[in-house]
Amino acid sequence: FWGPVSNFGIPVAAVMDTQKSPDLISGNMTFALCIYSATFMRYSMAVTPANYLLLGCHFINECAQLTQGYRYLQYHNWGGKEKAALAGAVDASKEKAKDIEAKIESAIRK
């Protein structure tokens, strides 16, 4: 009982990591954790009696790792990095335009 309960720290951390920047994701580690969780999901059903708590733990972790894997691929392979850089450039341009607008307004008031 306590092994699977303490093992829930892994999926809790994985779910919390889905809120972080995708440039921090390790593709190799995500792949390894997908294999790990799939293996232990199978193991949890192979033992007698079936360990549904362990199955639930690794099912949640598998879903979180697949989400992280998608985010990794989207960011590094499918143009997410370029989109993020472009969005940053657009935001910087908007700030610069606001600064110029403020300077023009102050010059007009004088």
Automatic annotation (TrEMBL):
<keyword id="KW-1133">Transmembrane helix</keyword>
<dbReference type="GO" id="GO:0005743">
    <property type="term" value="C:mitochondrial inner membrane"/>
</dbReference>
<keyword id="KW-0999">Mitochondrion inner membrane</keyword>
<dbReference type="GO" id="GO:0006850">
    <property type="term" value="P:pyruvate import into mitochondria"/>
</dbReference>
<dbReference type="InterPro" id="IPR005336">
    <property type="entry name" value="MPC"/>
</dbReference>
<keyword id="KW-0496">Mitochondrion</keyword>
<comment type="similarity">
    <text>Belongs to the mitochondrial pyruvate carrier (MPC) (TC 2.A.105) family.</text>
</comment>
<keyword id="KW-0472">Membrane</keyword>
<keyword id="KW-0813">Transport</keyword>
<dbReference type="Pfam" id="PF03650">
    <property type="entry name" value="MPC"/>
</dbReference>
<protein>
    <recommendedName>
        <fullName>Mitochondrial pyruvate carrier</fullName>
    </recommendedName>
</protein>
<comment type="function">
    <text>Mediates the uptake of pyruvate into mitochondria.</text>
</comment>
<keyword id="KW-0812">Transmembrane</keyword>
